[in-house]
Amino acid sequence: MFGFSKKKNLKEDSHLYAPLSGEIISISEVADPVFSKKMMGDGYAVEPTGNQLFAPVSAKVSLVQGHALGFVRADGLEVLLHVGIDTVSLNGAPFTFKVKEGDIVDGGQEIGHVDWDQVKKAGLSQTTMIVFTNTQDKLGNFEVKKGTTTAGADIGSAQVK
What we know:
The chain has helices at about 35, 115-120, 135-140; strands spanning about 15, 20-25, 40-50, 50-55, 60-65, 70, 80, 95, 105, 110-115, 130, 140-145, 145-150, 155-160. It is mainly beta. It has a single domain, classed as Glucose Permease (Domain IIA) (Distorted Sandwich), CATH 2.70.70. An eight-stranded antiparallel beta sheet has the order 9-5-6-7-11-3-2-13, with no helix packed on it. Strands 1-14-12 form a three-stranded antiparallel beta sheet. A hairpin with a 5-residue loop joins strand 6 and strand 7. The protein is globular. The relative contact order is 0.27.
């Protein structure tokens, strides 16, 4: 009646969105072999110039940890947003998330921010990875526009098998 119980529905959306402003690079260029050798799945990375975080896909939030967010799209594709390299050691201190597990987000929606000064002071990399964690089971193919991007921009798409 008053819109208090208005629930957002998960929508089909194959688009990929920039989680941060910065330079989109190939995941194989990431300094951490866990990501560059695609041990967690295929994906891409961003060398950030901004600190606002945006949803890389339209999906349900499946995981909220201090340094990472997990998403599941309507088609079952699982996406991990891993902010920085080895930032798990910071116990979530530089990260503020506006979402919780179970929330439905639109691709390109603001979901939080990161204090890069804390990451830099710890001597850690800001490189942020977007990984399709069920690559073998679900990912058909994906394409992203490499180069400079703005947070929340439509940068490509991913199709399932």
